[in-house]
Protein 1
Amino acid sequence: MMETKPIGLYVHIPFCKKKCNYCDFCSVACGSDKITRYTDNLIREIESYKRNPKIKIDTVFFGGGTPSVIDVGSFLKIASAVYDSFDVAADTEFSVEVNPATLTDEKLSAFNAVGVNRISIGLQSIHENEMKILGRIHTYDDFLKTYHMVRAAGIKNINVDLMYGIPEQSVSSFKKTLDAVIALSPEHVSAYGLIVEEGTPFFTNRDKLNLPDEDTEYSMYLDADRKLFDAGYAHYEISNYAQPGYVCRHNLKYWRDEEYIGVGLAAHSYYLGKRFYNTASFDEYFEDFGAKYRKEENANVGLDKFEYAMLGLRLSEGISLAEYKKLFDESFADGNEEKLDAYIKAGFMQIKDGRLSFTAKGFYISNAIMAELL
């Protein structure tokens, strides 16, 4: 009997001390009563996956929101439910997202106690004016204290989140942020271009934002790509860079179209060949911990082709053209041969060893290119 491939587990913690001005994630700022009630329902959802034999997982990712804002007791209860309900592999990558000024020695001790071995810290910028515009509640000094606290706790896999395209940000200020982070030598860096999403304070006030122009933002992207490459980081996904051996194994499951289970408010899953997601309503989630208000995504051949290409082309490894033809009984370029050839000649895409991928230059405009090709 073939052994089942381990899957990933995503645990959504939707609480923050304060919601940032650019954030459109499913997150809220609220107090301990709601956290307690949410924890109870989240545990019920986790326990609903108990199987005999148990589902094997080899990545766990606590995301949010800000998982580090919940109390130690709630975190330990949730982690305990994970270990009780799933078969957790010995080499599991266990990630937790934290924000500076929300982490304590007590919380770090709890993380160590349950096997957390990867911490992702949301910095975004080292400049106070840029962080204030974003609505971040921490200072650069808070970040440094948090970073060194995590290192002192023995965590050997740290990610730092950065953002470019911030209002009032310049090429020079972003370079200073990059240099400061590279000097710390985290194992992983995520650098995201700001997107002004509908429903956020930034969107409401978008006409008043002093945003960098496209050329300036592109220069920031290129600086991140060059500086991180020179410092030994591989640009393995559109927004992600890693030192050798430190790519995010959990996120790779999404991009490689592998299965995962998501639990918590608005969490998405791809399990047993089906894609589904939980309600984003606290009231509905509290009523039925997600099962009653879980929705299944439409699944058809067109959507599968689209997702396969969209996800795979986010990675520097790209997609296998032979595998694409085998899966969908057609060539990727069918009907788009001229467009694809033009993007390759322009240096935005490449075909190497039978795999189609974006170049570093192409990553920056990948959404526009994929809209043309797909």
Note: DSSP finds 15 helices and 17 strands in the chain.
Protein 2
Amino acid sequence: MDYRQFGRSGLTVPVLSFGTGTFGGTNEFFQRWGQTDVAEATRMVDLCLDSGVNFFDTADIYSGGASEEILGQALKGKRDRALISTKATFRFNDDLNQVGSSRYHLVRACEASLKRLGTDHIDVYFMHGFDALTPVDETLRALDDLTRAGKIGYIGASNFSGWQLMKALATSERHGLARYVAYQGYYSLIGRHYEWELMPLGIDQGVGLMVWSPLGWGRLTGKIRRGQANQSGRIAAGGAEGGPPVSDEYLFGVVDALDAVAAETGKTVAQVALNWLLTRPTVCNIVVGARTEEQLKQNLGALGWTLTAEQVARLDAASHETPIYPYWHQKGFDERNPKPTVW
């Protein structure tokens, strides 16, 4: 296992973490992701720990809290060997105030997550989305209090736009409050918009990236190819609902390039797609999910080898998209406004 620093913090994490969105499946949406029970979850957690993957990611809304409960049970007697990240912000129930990033909600959401996880502390606590109705300093003061109380180790942001994250970082600096050290966001070979604004921000501010859905909502598993129907897996089960639209021609062009590199390396399409992400600036961790132990073992095969610079360049070219304004315009002033070379 390889390890990296978790943003601008003293925490070291494995480059892969295990996402537990497949645990539970207690409602229609998450059933499409998976329905892993406690016994299977325990086997997967043990496999992860034996492989050096000691970082587990969940959220309070995953299967209405069942994901946290199952993860907590699977980690019984092993909590001191593991790092746990979870999230809050999205609506949890019908209570008018059990939503957003207010002090009222976050204090109660954190306590509820601690109880479901069966632990006294959460290593990384993410704001699952930006709450524009709650003052940024109210959110950060609540998180700072929870951190000082020892209930949270580090805080992170997820799915924020660049200005929202920068506003929060500036507020933390101004008032001496806990600071977002990591950003959990969508990034894949068929979803590179993170590079346009959030990556330069991460480089400048020392915010590490924890990637979610690194296989493009299941489109880069190797099951989808030009002229081939997808008959199994998460997408076939309807699990791509809510995912970003991708044109068939763009997707197939990327998969063609992945196929060629996979043949050269003797790896799978998914392993190549994950390895590519590990070459990118700011990436400190990739959240991988699995419905089965075999899928988990396949994902672990993304480590222990390196793509050549030429192979990375081919994958870059196949997945390139022209940035939207103002980013394409800024490219014309690289002399004074440099951008990451991945552009």
Note: DSSP finds twelve helices and ten strands in the chain.
Protein 3
Amino acid sequence: MIKEKVKQLSKTIFDEVVATRRHLHANPELSFHETETSAFIAKKLDELGLSYTRMAGNGLVALITGEKPSDKVIALRADMDALPITEINDVPYKSKNIGVMHACGHDVHTSSLLGTAKILTQLKSEFGGTVKLIFQPAEEKLPGGANLMIQEGVLENPKPDAVLGQHVMPLIEAGKVGFRAGKYMASTDELYVTITGKGGHGAQPQQNIDPVIITAHILVALQQVVSRFADPKSPTVLSFGKVIANGATNVIPNEVYLEGTFRTMDEAWREEAHIKMKKMAEGMAESMGAKCDFNIVKGYPFLINEEVLTASARAFAEDYLGKENVVDLDIWMAAEDFAYFSQAADACFYRLGTRNESRGITSSVHTPTFDVEESSLELSTGLMAYMAIKQLGN
């Protein structure tokens, strides 16, 4: 039975997958600079006898075709870039690149997909159809490697019937996975705002146009976009994480600089909100004698898991792991460039549990103490291989 064969192979290659993950973790590279990571993946594909093409700089795409007759195609995606974070974990595979860390689990995603590829190459006689392996660069930085790969034709020749992606989740115990059908993750836009007034001595406010006070008004007023303009049924987040007013106790600066993020799950409302935020901020600044430059850098769209595909993927996961090890996911207002795949094709983005409280492996992604319970790598490789084979109709 194919399930037992997949499980046995995932056990057989487990140590190799862990070693691959540790190598990647110790040698992280930032978005659009994954040169050595890409070369490492290419070497692994060569060892499997798989030809590949390069896309979007450091991206790689390979095909595995089953020996049974079928024209179905399923794509499996893994990202490979790291984050500008200094790791503080005391582990043998700690990052060797100071200031760069696999703090979002992309080392797990890449090593898992390589493991899945090894399983599938050994089972080609057991299935029909084609599996497209997508090793994607630059998930963490706009415009996003997924977007670039789609523009270069990754979803063509052959066109996949569906795209699957998995992502680590430290909130879920290792041994479990999570699914959510429909809207799952938010769009993300970057906001860069400069309010320019007229600086001067803090003891003579009547001679100045104080951009600090004006900025305070704008920051508070902009929250009306969330609390009064957004439909309460449509999740919306507006946050500003950087405010720079480089004055002093008695010096009012000429300008204040802001950086923030806007997130939602409705593309029409997203466009409307952009107009409202910009108009409100610029109008308030002008009414108080200042000038506001409100720049919006549009980022990833929202991520939606196609209902039928996700239901079948979940059913296959329950078959492989048992229903007790498949959990429901809530809406997540973080963003992911896999969203581009979900907007262009039927897609399912699911979560791999990596938490182990007994070992203290509980840190969130994007933190310097992030790590994973490595036993999850046996599940991650086998489950993705099994779901791919089943989605192909085998």
Note: Residues 267-287 form the longest helix (21 residues).
